[in-house]
């Protein structure tokens, strides 16, 4: 009965929210992959070992480390226990560094998912996700040495960015890898679509005027 009441309450809360004000989270890649139409999955395994610097783009995903004096992204085989060995995208940053996944200016995806994995030592991080409609999901997570965990996020309005930074207080720099990055199609944000539509209307108006 208590459970039913809680469920009913939850339904009422959901019913009162705008339909798009959500970020759904998934901890199983199988579930995530069965719900969403996955357009690309990057295992990083076909890429040679290399240092990428503070910015890289793969499969329409922009990987970046900001606010960091010595940022580095690497493709390497440091993740021996990675979900798809040998290679991972390894993120090496300082305490202040913020690692992010975005999809280009004015672009979003319905869903994005990936594994995180530790290298070297256990640590804690803050993960921060923003949707196009302004919804925010934020949480902390910890991983043991060589443990990996899947994170999937989706929003009807579109996921705009996923950022990971160090959890203050544990005095350890961001140092982790990500692997098997899945995403749905990259689409322009609604505001971008509106601007494009307005620009299109403007062109039509100009053509009509020039014909007169
Ligand atoms: Ca891999």
Topology:
Blueprint: H1 2-16, E1 24-26, H2 29-35, E2 40-42, E3 50-53, E4 55-58, E5 61-66, E6 72-76, E7 88-92, E8 98-102, E9 107-118, E10 123-131, E11 136-143, E12 148-166, E13 175-183, E14 186-188, H3 190-211
Antiparallel strand pairs: 1-12, 2-13, 3-6, 4-5, 5-8, 6-7, 7-13, 8-12, 9-12, 9-13, 9-14, 10-11, 10-12
This protein binds calcium ion.
Structural description of this entry:
- The protein has 212 residues and is of the alpha+beta class.
- The protein contains three helices and 14 strands.
- Strands 1, 2, 3, 4, 5, 6, 7, 8, 9, 10, 11, 12, 13 and 14 form a 14-stranded antiparallel sheet that branches.
- The termini are far apart.
- Bound molecules: calcium ion.
- Calcium ion binds next to loops.
Work out the helix count: 3
Helix and strand string, N-terminal first?
A: HEHEEEEEEEEEEEEEH
Averaged pLDDT: 83
The assigned CATH architecture is: Sandwich
What share of residues are in beta strands?
Answer: 35-45%
Residue windows where pLDDT falls under 50 for at least 5 positions: 6-20
Structural descriptors:
212 residues, Jelly Rolls, 3 helices, elongated, binds calcium ion
Briefly summarize what is shown.
With 212 residues, the protein is an alpha+beta fold.
